[in-house]
Amino acid sequence: MGCSGLLVLGFVLNVAHCVEILDGDPKLEIPHNLTAVLGEDAYLSCRYLGENEIVTAQWKRQINSKIQSKRLRLAGFINGEPFSRQHDISNPASPTNLTVKMNVSSVEVEGQYICEFETDEENFSENLFLTVVARPYVQILVNAETINGSRYQSVSCSAVGGRPVPQISWLVDGRPPSDYPYTVNVSETAHSNGTSTLSSILRFPTHLQEEDSVICLVQHPTLPNPKLTTVRVETYIRPNVTIKAEMVQRGGSEFWVVSCISSGGRPATNISLALNTNEELQREYSTDTDTQTSSVLLPATVYEGRNVTCVFGHPKFTHKVSRVITLPSFYLSGELGSNRDYFQDPESLELQEGRSDTVISLQVTGNVPHYNVTCKKDDGPLPEGMELVGSSNLTVQGPLEHQHAGLYECVFSYHQLNATLKFNVTVKPHVIQPVPPTVRVDLQTEDGYRVIECSAADAVPAANMSWLLPEGVSGVSWFNFTSHNGSHSVKGVLLLPACTPWELTAECVINHPAFEEPVNRSITLPLCARPHIAINSSTEWKDGDEYTKVDCSVDSVAPAATITWHAGNGDSISSVHVSLSEMEVQADGLVSARSSAHFLSSLYSGQNVTCRVEHPSLEAPEKRTIHILVHKPPVLSVSVVRQEDSHLWLAVCDCRGEAVGNNLAWVLPKNAKGQTSLHSTYEGRVIKARLTYQFPLAYHEGQDLTCVYHLEHGATEKKTIHIPRYYISAVRVLNHTTPLQSRYSGETIAHRLALQENHHNQRVLLQVEGNVPEYNIDCRRSDGSFVQMDGIAMVFQPALTEQEEGLYTCQASFYHHTATVNIQVEVASEDKHIALAIMICASSAMAILVILAVTLWACCKGNGRTEYKKQESLSALTSLMQEPGSPEVKKPAVTENDKKEFAQQISYSIVIDVKSTV
């Protein structure tokens, strides 16, 4: 009975597991609330998630009225055919997907919608409530009006056609407007289509508005963010007011132009000009973009010292603003200028007889715009040769004489203003006295000499001049004498060499009666500027030989430097190889000397070539040396690269050195079919040559390539590079697979792989074995189409279906090396899985029933049966329990002697083999 209890328990658990596999409640996927915008499209979504076959599927609308409540059929599927009874509703997508597009043309479509599915077994329904909203649009209007002289502005902001009612607020300078001076009036208007319009009016006096814009802020559920609309409004600006006066001449008379000026204000300023007079005055008005000007023309002599007032009125002023200006009063006075030779007292002037171009300056003090001057001497006209120049100078033409002495009177006048200046002029007799000379020393360089000039000018009497030189220095000198208007000048010239290697000083000695002792003027000649020496070299190749050219240039003061050439330990270079020296005078007076030496480089290889310079500024000759380099063999380097966008490889041989030519070659195996090319570039004295060899990898894989450069006299330079040997041994599948072998050879011809139907992003992982730096891998179906790859994995991106079953071939390649693998992909669908589960459950249940029946029968009849019956039942049970297979693996028949022993060894077992494709 214990055995029977265990069998019953296993049966119950197996049946429960089968019921659990097949159990599943169908569901509907539907949003219960949906909001749509008037005038736009909305999507009513409803999806059946069960697995029963759909008989009918449809959308209905619940309509409730005072009379009755009914459901209106809108769209759906009947007998597998879609239908729609509304022109603004589309056909559903499928019998299990009742998603439709509805054009929301009015708010009347708002309400409850019912999604219904009818299957062979039962019906399902769910409700969806559709809410309709309308997006408003904003209208702005600005209006202005004047009340009791004050200007007001009204800004109207309307949110038209909104549902539900929008919200409107205002911002002034980023903040809500205050109660004063702003007022806000709000009104709402309902429309027949179910929408409404909300209007808000912001009103304020213009002269209290400081900001030039206000912002209307509209909020509504259809707007993701509040809509801000900026409105420009009129504002008043406080003006800057000033008053100014300037003098002008009109018709020969002076006038004050007094201007009242208002700038930068808005609106226009009211300007008035206040004067304490009743006479008619000339007034002028002008206005430009930013400035207003009101001017009045006043006679200068009538209004001197009087006040003029400008009065300004503007809405930004709390009261009228005044600006006052006081016109100046005129005054006039005169005195002698500061250029008098001698003052005895403020009204006396003493001048020297015989002086030429005498000028007596008359200085006027006052603030008059102009004045007139008249002068006389001793109550008579001015003496001959004296005249009034301009309005401030008495000028004597010619030498001053005794007739110019006397009492002078000059009168300055401007209208009714007058000022008188009296002064007495005395003439001091001429006395001859020694006049010291003006001494000057100058130094110049001309034609290779230093020219020193010493002058003693305008002396009475003439000065004596001599030169004082250092011991051992001699030069050429001479003197010139000139006279003019009783004064005498002498000039001495001294010539010295322009260039000396030491510093020397020359002195000019001057004797004159006005000097208590001789006056010396010395000038020091500096050291001669040392020459600038430059040396450079260049090489060139000609007929396979290298030649060197060395240039030596010397910039110095005159005369030009002398250049000679030496090599090694001081041996002179043959004149055959030295060019003649060239001399050139530059703009700054320097002299350039140039010389070149041209010779075969091998003659002086590794030696020094020296440029020797001699010049008067040098105490000893100077040398400049350049080293002639020893010729070095070229440098070789080789490399092999794989070319992009080409199946060919490239061997590169770079050669760097001097005079590298075409004597560069590749040593290749026999029957080489590649292509070679040579390219050369120059970098100064160095030549870079590149020899390339283009070849397929299969021709030279595992071989050596050698680049050879042939030197002179048969010598060579070599560089060798090895081409690696590559291989790909196999492509393996990393997923769990079952090998499929050939019935003849027993070799694996494909790998069986099971994937799940309707599963996304399933991958088949691959692995490439071999010796390659990189490889390309692609997979194809049996029809030749490519499979999507992610690296080295096959990817089944969309939901996998049974159409994807079949044989796939994946190939890895690196140039001519390849390897492939075949994969038999099988797709296990959910229907197959359920059917297989049902079959397994049914077969398991049947097997358990059979085993239970056999066990009960065996227990009940075991003791009462004969040996023949016992043997027959055991044989039947034994045949039932044997696994199917080939005849050679079946168990032998029971003999008479083994009956009893065999009966003791028989055991019963149930094996449930559920083969899964996962």
TrEMBL record:
It is a single-pass membrane protein. It is found in: Membrane. Residues 1-18 form the signal peptide. It holds the Pfam family C2-set_2. The chain crosses the membrane at residues 834-860. GO terms for cellular component: adherens junction; membrane. Residues 26-125, 136-229, 531-627 form the Ig-like domain. CDD domains: IgC1. It comes from the Eukaryota. Keywords: Cell adhesion, Disulfide bond, Glycoprotein, Membrane, Repeat, Signal, Transmembrane, Transmembrane helix. One of its GO terms (biological process) is homophilic cell adhesion via plasma membrane adhesion molecules. Belongs to the nectin family. This is Ig-like domain-containing protein.
